[in-house]
């Protein structure tokens, strides 16, 4: 039985009737569900304490640590879903790509992919490569009970950009040069990454994740025509690969207002929206048949409590006519955010939308 499904003759899973999964399915909800991207992380003192002296990638490979970090924001904020604590480069590390996450920099790849021969770095991902993910999700679902767990992965374009650039970039000149100048090499790179990403999501779903989110963090760097031609096919392949499991699939990108319709076309059930586009306008761009997720500006949380509530009210008002809405930030929680501001925000949204 899938983590989200309710097959004939069997009882629904514990999370099936949760507010989060109901919203994903565009069904009536008892309140608007809330979770936050990067809710498990540096904004929490308990996270900083448990991670002290432990490198990021190592922390992602220790089931006990992953379990504790994933649960921390659920305990503290009463959010409606947990998101599996990991990093988008974990599956690349698991198949042997020589990379590390450097503090203050981000993922750095020792041997960037610049030629067809370099594709040899990318072998298939097997469940055995990430057995710690299966173990951690087993521990988490036992603890979470009726609270859904969201699995996630980086989208092929964002992973390809890291691999080609060798690390974070503001201009993506190497990645775009390959995309424009060597389109077949680019297509083969993204296709291979789509297979790796799909395998990584499959492991999470089969271990018990109730939904999955594909992060295309850098997609906003693309023009719509380039996205449709050079990126959408790989993302669509990922979503198709996990469709049969029946779990909701969420698609999110930063600065992707011009791409919202295309990101929906890729196969997501829920489209994440950053803070630049109001949700009612996002719904028009995405079209019918999709729930939306978002979209409070993360920096609002540094303002007064009254200002936070006012801006949250704006988000809820623009979402009032949507078939399904999951309240979230328009990007991740910033490290210096006051955790109490997040707790108050969850309570505010729950109270204001109680039905």
Question: Characteristics of this structure?
Answer:
9 strands; seven-stranded parallel β-sheet; 15 helices; two-stranded antiparallel sheet; disordered N terminus; 12% strand; globular; alpha/beta; single chain
Describe this structure as you would to a colleague.
The chain is α/β, with parallel strands linked by helices and 355 residues long. It has helices at 19-24, 45-51, 56-60, 63-77, 90-94, 131-144, 156-165, 173-181, 183-207, 224-230, 232-243, 260-265, 279-286, 305-318, 339-353, and strands at 82-83, 99-102, 106-109, 149-154, 211-216, 249-253, 270-272, 291-296, 325-329. A 7-stranded parallel β-sheet has the order 1-4-5-6-7-8-9. The chain has a two-stranded antiparallel ribbon with strand order 2-3. α6 (131-144) packs across α9. The longest helix is centred in the middle third of the chain and has 25 residues, at 183-207.
- Net shape: globular
Number of strands: 9
Largest sheet: 7 strands, parallel
Q: Kindly, what is the distance between the CA atoms of the first and last residues, rounded to a whole number of angstroms?
A: 30 Å
């Amino acid at each position: 039985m899938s983590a989200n499904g309710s097959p004939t003759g069997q009882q629904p899973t514990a999370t099936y009737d949760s507010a989060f999964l109901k919203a994903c399915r565009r069904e009536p909800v008892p309140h608007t569900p809330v979770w936050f991207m990067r809710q498990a992380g540096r904004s929490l003192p308990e996270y900083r304490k448990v991670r002290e002296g432990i490198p990021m990638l190592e922390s992602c490979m220790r089931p006990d640590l992953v379990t504790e970090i994933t649960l921390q924001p659920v305990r503290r904020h009463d959010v409606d879903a947990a998101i599996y604590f990991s990093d988008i480069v974990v599956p690349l590390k698991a198949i042997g790509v020589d990379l590390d996450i450097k503090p203050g920099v981000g993922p750095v790849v020792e041997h960037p992919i610049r030629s067809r021969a370099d594709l040899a770095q990318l072998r298939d991902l097997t469940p055995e490569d990430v057995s710690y993910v299966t173990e951690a999700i087993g521990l988490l679902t036992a603890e979470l009970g009726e609270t859904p767990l969201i699995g996630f992965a980086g989208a092929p374009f964002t992973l390809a950009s890291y691999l080609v650039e060798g690390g974070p970039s503001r201009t993506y000149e190497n990645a775009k040069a390959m995309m424009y100048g060597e389109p077949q090499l680019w297509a083969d790179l993204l296709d291979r990454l789509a297979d790796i990403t799909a395998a990584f999501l499959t492991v999470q779903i089969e271990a018990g994740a109730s939904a999955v989110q594909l992060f295309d963090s850098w997609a906003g760097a693309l023009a719509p025509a380039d996205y449709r031609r050079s990126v959408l096919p790989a993302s669509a392949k990922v979503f198709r690969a996990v469709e049969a499991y029946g779990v909701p699939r969420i698609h999110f990108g930063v600065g992707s207002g011009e791409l919202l319709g295309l990101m929906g076309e890729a196969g997501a059930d829920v489209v994440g929206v950053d803070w630049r586009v109001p949700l009612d306008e996002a719904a028009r761009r995405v079209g019918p048949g999709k729930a939306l997720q978002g979209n409070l500006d993360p920096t609002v949380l540094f303002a007064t409590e009254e200002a936070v509530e006012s801006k949250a009210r704006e988000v809820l008002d623009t979402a009032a006519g949507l078939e399904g809405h999951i309240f979230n930030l328009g990007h991740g929680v910033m490290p210096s955010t006051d955790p109490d501001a997040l707790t108050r925000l969850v309570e505010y949204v729950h109270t204001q939308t109680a039905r």
